[in-house]
Amino acid sequence: MSELINNREYRQKVLKELIEELHRGKTVEEVKPRFEELIKGGVTTSEITEMEAALVAEGMPVEEIQRLCDVHAAVFKGSIQEIHGTVRPQDIPGHPVHTFIQENRAIEELMAEIQNDLEEFRKDDSKSNLKKLIKGFDKLWEIDRHYFRKENLLFPYLEKYGITTPPKVMWGVDDEIRADIKLVINLLNDYNGDREELTEKAEYALERVKEMIFKEESILLPLAVDTLSEDEWMNIQKASDDAGYTLIKPKAKWKPARVDVEEKAREEGEEPADDGYNEFDAGIMTPEETNAVLNTLPLDLTFVDKDGIVKWFSMGKERIFARPKTVLGREVKNCHPPASVHIVEKIVEDLRTGRKDHEDFWIRFKDHFAYIRYFAVRDKKGKFLGVLEVTQDIKPIQEITGEKRLMSD
What is the pLDDT of residues 219-263, one digit of tens each? Predict the structure, then answer.
């Protein structure tokens, strides 16, 4: 059972109940309070129309649904959009769209400061002016978190609706901007006196960031607002804290009107069903035990099914690579930057066809030495079920010497 019922489905259910109450003889004034409560969170005329059309599709006579027209008029005395209005996501503090836009404003403010520092640096490339630029571009690098949330929290939902090309193109440009900023940071830290080269690269990086802000706010975010459901925006908000923010933090939590299904079931005297046990080749565990055991393993585990869909990953305390929950249900090829997709596809194909049973990599990453292994998962008859990625920090293991035969204090 989902933790929270979809708001649109809930509204449709209540609309049906209101129509039935009118049919049984209740007056407009009697059902009006419940209708007002239903649309508190903001509802458009088109949404009411869509929900009513869905009720007709289910077999409810149009004449019955027309009874709601009197309720509309009594509540709004006119158009729903004209009187009640629709609250725009970008105007709601804490909503992911509002947060993305507020970050963009902070980025623009920072870039204006950097631009002023660049002008000073053009006149005088002193150490103090150089330090100002280093500080500014180091702060600008926080944009990586903004792009990370966009790529790993927002893009997966657009892909669900078949919108794949804009995210792929934008991710590729994001990576180019990251590289542009990194190049400037390296030039600043290793400044060799070539003032013209440095200022030219810095100006170019700032212009690329500016262009991306325009693309996000004129193309990407409006598209996402028109496409994503309230549930999906709430999932993005929940995952955003772990992903991190750029230059600012939301001052509020967005709290849409929700219906907690399990709480509602308890109020009605129902209890959530017992999930039972997971049965394995050697023993059984409850779902709670299974989840805890997998999260206790000193490994990062991710399972991609035979169709290339990310279905599960472990949630250990110390992950090496970030895994937002929005990757679940996403095609694995869309979880990587465009430049490395061909490598991912080759690994999966080799494991699927049986050409290989596993593929191993090891890389230095921050303070870790990551040992990354990909295994073909097959059933007892050899049928391919998917790919298991196992990542472990082997740096502590490499540092082991001698023997340890006694317990630690």
Answer: 899 889 888 888 889 889 988 988 899 999 998 888 775 544 445
Helical (H) or strand (E) element with 155: helix 155-160
Residue linked to tokens 């035979």: 306
For residue 79, the SS3 value is coil
Domain count within the chain: 3
Amino acid at 89: P
Q: How far apart are CA 104 and CA 147, in angstroms?
A: 11
Q: Please tell me the pTM assigned to this model.
A: 0.57
Provide the residue type at 165 as one letter.
T
Is residue 158 within 8 Å of 146, Cβ to Cβ? no
> Based on the domain organization, do 214 and 70 belong to the same domain?
no
Answer yes or no: do 60 and 125 share one domain: no
Q: What size, in residues, is the chain?
A: 409
Cβ atoms within 10 Å of 148's Cβ, excluding its own? 16
Alpha-carbon separation of residue 4 from 261, 265, 270 (angstroms): 6, 12, 16
**Which of 223, 243, 263 marks a domain boundary?**
243
Cα-flanking dihedrals φ and ψ of residue 284, to 5°? -135, 155
What DSSP state is assigned to residue 365?
E
Q: Strands of 310-313's sheet, edge to edge?
A: 310-313, 300-305, 384-393, 368-378, 358-365
The dihedral region occupied by 218, where left means phi > 0, alpha psi between -120 and 50, and beta the remainder, is alpha
Within the chain, which residues score under 50 in pLDDT?
1-6, 45-46, 76-85, 259-262, 264-265, 272-273
Please report how many Cα atoms fall inside a 13 Å half-sphere around the Cα of residue 109, on the Cβ side.
9
Reported as a single tens digit per residue, the pLDDT across 23-47 is 677 777 787 787 777 665 555 544 5
- Reduced to 3 states (helix: H, G, I; strand: E, B; else coil), residue 358 is strand
62 lies in the same domain as 195:
no
DSSP letters for 252-321? S-------BHHHHHHHTT--PPP---EEETTEEE-HHHHHHHHHHSSSEEEEEETTSBEEEE---SS-SS
